[in-house]
Amino acid sequence: MTITVQYFARLREDVGRASDEIATPGAVDTAGDLWRHLHGRPPPPRLMVAINQRHARLDSPVADGDEVAFFPPVTGG
Amino acid sequence: MGVRLFSEPFDPWALIRERERELPLEKLGATSVFVGRMRDFNDDRTVQGLFLEHYPGMTERELERIVMEAEARWPVDACEVAHRVGTVNPSETLVLVAVWSAHRVAARDACAEILERLKHEAPFWKRERLEDGGARWVEKNTPGS
To answer: Judging by beta carbons within 10 Å of its beta carbon (0-12, 13-18, 19+), is residue B142 exposed, middle or buried?
Structure first.
């Protein structure tokens, strides 16, 4: 099983790609763990996260098959 | 409930007229409307255009959730929300929020709440094209009050 990770807006430019797909790592329990596992550094300030297209938090649990998205503060309207 | 995304310019007043054809207007004493347009200036710079990025799937779902929660909180009879995505030019409509109710307080308060929540929760991101050919991401919305 895998977790799909998507990046949007300025964060996608900073990361240098739109998505990652990784085999579910054993030591990853939360969205914040997933960020640190993929990028080797703490999540940037004001980072927003969604799990399966619903708003979540960095301490929200992630599981096999989840679609996780990281993005900067939203600016619509 | 009507939630729509447009990748081309849309006429907010035409959407309102179209929706009103199916509403019992004799029971709806109040309509509150917000139309947001693209300005040609922001933070002391001239802005030539915008690119509005969104998260296909989640954006629609979030807008629907925001409208449903407003409909649960206020006695409103109909809501129409429309938002542009993609390339937008100054003076074009970015967002429409329209709310119909029997009375003004519910219509006005629900319209304001939907707009504020849209701005803080719906996944859209603005990238501005500047007059010198540069571009910048908008880091945060202007305060609502």
So the answer is: exposed
Measure CB to CB from residue A9 to each of B53, B119, B140 and give the nearest one.
B53
Token pair for B50? 């915008």
Predicted confidence (pLDDT) at residue B145 exceeds the cutoff of 70: no
Largest CA distance in chain B: 52
Q: Which residues of B touch A (CB under 8 A)?
A: 36, 52-55, 57-58, 61-62, 83, 94-95, 115, 118-127, 137-141
What is the share, in percent, of chain B residues with pLDDT greater than 70?
99
Separation CA B69–CA B24 (nearest Å): 22
CA B23, CA B119: separation in Å to the nearest integer?
Answer: 27
Does the predicted model carry a pTM greater than 0.90? yes
Helix locations, chain A, DSSP H = 9-15, 31-39
| Tens digits of residue pLDDT in B74-92 | 999 999 999 999 999 999 9
Kindly report the CATH number that applies to the domain delimited by B2-136.
Answer: 3.90.1170.40
* Partner residue facing A77 (CB), from B53, B118, B127: B118
- At the topology level, CATH places domain A2-71 in Ubiquitin-like (UB roll) (3.10.20)
CA distance to A25, A46, B5, B34, per residue, from A33 (Å): 10, 16, 34, 41
